[in-house]
Amino acid sequence: ILLFSFMGCGTCFLAHGLAVKELQHPAKTYKLFDYVTGFAEGGEVIFFFCFFCLFPDSFGVLALIFSGLCILTIIFRTWHLIQQTRKT
């Protein structure tokens, strides 16, 4: 569950960034990347990975909490992308 949600969060981040770039600036030739925040970003990842190492007995509970944050981020970014496509 942790691996699926973590990789899904990263994939959703990249897909969202590229899709919104194409929606907003389809004719631009320079690189542009749209960034939308989520619930599981860099700081949260480091926090949970440190806690995984510090409290290995609680790995299961921490992994489920972190997976939940990743899934919420996937849902939020997908919802944001749908809203962006409706505007165009």
What's the structural blueprint in terms of helices and strands?
Blueprint: H1 2-24, H2 42-54, H3 59-87
Helix pairs in contact: 1-3, 2-3
Structure overview:
The model has no long low-confidence stretch (mean pLDDT 83). The protein has helices at residues 2-24, 42-54, 59-87. The protein is elongated and about 50 Å long. Helix content is 74%, strand content 0%. It has three helices and no strands. Helix 1 runs parallel beside helix 3 (59-87) and helix 2 (42-54) packs antiparallel against helix 3. It starts with a helix and ends with a helix. It has 88 residues and is mainly α.
Assembly type of the chains comes to: single chain
Query: How many strands in all?
Result: 0
The total count of helices amounts to: 3
The outline comes out as: elongated
Radius of gyration: 15 Å
A few lines on this structure:
With 88 residues, the protein is an all-alpha fold.
Using brief descriptors, characterize the structure shown.
single chain, 88 residues, mainly alpha
